[in-house]
Amino acid sequence: MNSQDIFKHALTYEKKIRDLYLSAVETIDDNRGKSIFKALADDEQSHVDFLEHSLDLLASAREIDVEKLESAIPAPVDDHIKQMKEKIPEKMLGDVKRVLNAALVLEIETSKFYKKACEDSQGRIREVLEKFHEIEERHVAVVQIELDHATGSGFWFDFMEMDMED
């Protein structure tokens, strides 16, 4: 698959998950859920914009600037995870859980696509795809965090919140 084909395929993934997040914004009653899904939709739209612009650059044999690919979704680490957890309401609506489940599936699928595309690419295109993979892994982590808490699974970011054995 050449670079243009990879980017066109990536556009399909990005638009699919963006549309899921946009539909969630319209259907979710929970304001916090709406804001999370709106932020994720905006981030996915920025990916769509970047890919479309990159396709134009590739078509005219110009170089893609990987530095222009950014994400408004921060990496969920240490203090940020604690802050996110403190802001999550105790009870989230069923629709939020349903959308989070669907989003997690799509984010994982998209991340796997970028990982495979990285392996099949080189040079500047590989750098762009690696950056996309990094961003999508961030999305997977954020959605997993929200889903773990919303479902009351006892896990928080893949760690057991409390041990019933103690």
Write out key terms for the chains shown:
mainly alpha, disordered C terminus, 72% helix, elongated, Ferritin, two-stranded antiparallel ribbon, 5 helices, single chain, 166 residues
Q: What gross morphology would you assign?
A: elongated
Beta content comes to under 5%
Measured distance between first and last alpha carbons: 54 Å
Tally of DSSP helical segments: 5
CATH topology: Ferritin
Return the average pLDDT rounded to an integer.
Answer: 80
Structural class: mainly alpha
CATH architecture: Up-down Bundle
The strands making up the biggest β-sheet line up spatially as 1-2
| Poorly predicted runs | 77-82, 88-93, 155-166
Q: How large, in whole angstroms, is the Cα Rg?
A: 17 Å
Provide the succession of SSEs.
Answer: HHHHHEE
Number of beta strands: 2
Helix content: over 70%
Can you tell me the CATH superfamily? Ferritin, core subunit, four-helix bundle
CATH class categorisation? Mainly Alpha
**Biggest β-sheet: count, sense, barrel?**
2 strands, antiparallel
